[in-house]
């Protein structure tokens, strides 16, 4: 890798997966520790003025965007401002910016898979913030790659997977929507995709734009939960026996979460040669890592 790579958010689950995967291929990241209050416009300005990497992967707000149950609106506004400043700095210093985004920019009304050509129409505050930061990155920083991911699964202690497994261990009734669909995407697979994109950019390929990636085989949240429980029983025997099906409209997060969140991944395949991997194949290592740290 000829480019000097910077990673903001090296301490979170996706950042750690990216560092691990890079180390296997002798690819290193400059991963600065965030200031006490987290990255903001002023600290980002100082950082990039001092370091000037060739490419930057922004995972600084990964947990809030992809794993948190809810995020305060004021916090999202501050993060939007920071990303806009980051895009300005990347343009100024001619830094390639790789910015993750999410299926949440869509409203879930489309039954077929969303392509990159579909207009975003987010439901909740998080999706709206992601849409606005996408717009600012496109408008401000020409050398960008926006990567929209499907349902990201990681081993973080308070993440989506952890909350589900905690409910499964607590007993009582557990229900998931059987009419909500998406692409589960283990965090190691997401890291593989980011690294593959960086390698192409290292070859000076001007492949700027927006791309979708999600694990192979779209499924329902109910089927995903059943697959996770099946794997988790290798580590815990006191999990609930079964998950009850529930309608998407009856779920407490129905107003925020798209019912249909399947992403079409043809563009990233044709442009970068990145093939979707089966999400089920990533569950054993993901659950193993989760239970080793519980």
TrEMBL record:
Cofactor entry: Mg(2+)
Involved pathway(s): Carbohydrate biosynthesis; dTDP-L-rhamnose biosynthesis
Leader peptide range in chain numbering: none
NADP in keyword set: yes
EC number(s) stated in the UniProt entry for this protein: 1.1.1.133
Domain RmlD-like substrate binding: 3-291
Cofactor binding summary note: Binds 1 Mg(2+) ion per monomer.
InterPro entries, A to Z: dTDP_dehydrorham_reduct (IPR005913), NAD(P)-bd_dom_sf (IPR036291), RmlD-like-bd (IPR029903)
Catalysed conversion reaction: dTDP-beta-L-rhamnose + NADP(+) = dTDP-4-dehydro-beta-L-rhamnose + NADPH + H(+)
Protein's name according to its UniProt entry: dTDP-4-dehydrorhamnose reductase
Keywords attached to this entry: NADP, Oxidoreductase
SUPFAM superfamilies for this protein: NAD(P)-binding Rossmann-fold domains
Top-rank taxon, per record: Bacteria
Protein family: Belongs to the dTDP-4-dehydrorhamnose reductase family.
Physiological role: Catalyzes the reduction of dTDP-6-deoxy-L-lyxo-4-hexulose to yield dTDP-L-rhamnose.
């Amino acid at each position: 890798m000829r480019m000097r790579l910077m990673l903001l958010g090296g301490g979170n689950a996706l950042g750690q997966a990216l560092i691990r995967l890079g180390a296997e291929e002798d690819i290193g990241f400059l991963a600065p520790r965030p200031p006490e209050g987290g990255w903001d416009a002023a600290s980002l300005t100082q950082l990039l003025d001092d370091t000037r990497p060739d490419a930057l992967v922004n995972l600084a707000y990964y947990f809030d965007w992809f794993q948190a149950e809810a995020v305060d609106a004021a916090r999202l506004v501050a993060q939007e401002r920071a990303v806009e400043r980051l895009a300005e700095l990347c343009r100024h210093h001619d830094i390639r910016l790789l910015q993750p985004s999410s299926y949440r920019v869509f409203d879930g009304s489309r039954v077929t898979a969303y392509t990159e050509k579909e207009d975003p129409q987010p439901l909740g505050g998080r999706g709206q913030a992601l849409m606005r930061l996408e717009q600012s990155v496109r408008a401000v920083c020409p050398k960008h790659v926006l990567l929209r991911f499907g349902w990201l699964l990681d081993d973080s202690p308070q993440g989506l997977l952890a909350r589900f497994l905690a409910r499964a261990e607590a007993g009582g009734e557990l229900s998931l929507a059987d009419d909500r669909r998406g692409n589960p995407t283990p965090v190691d697979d997401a890291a593989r995709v980011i690294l593959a994109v960086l390698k192409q950019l290292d070859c000076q390929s001007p492949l700027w734009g927006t791309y979708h990636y999600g694990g192979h085989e779209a499924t329902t949240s109910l089927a995903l939960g059943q697959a996770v429980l099946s794997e988790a029983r290798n580590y815990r025997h006191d999990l609930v026996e079964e998950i009850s099906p529930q309608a998407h409209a009856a779920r407490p997060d129905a107003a925020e979460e798209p019912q249909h969140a399947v992403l079409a991944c043809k563009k990233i395949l044709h442009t970068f040669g990145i093939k979707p991997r089966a999400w089920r194949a990533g569950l054993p290592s993901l659950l193993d890592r989760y239970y080793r740290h519980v």
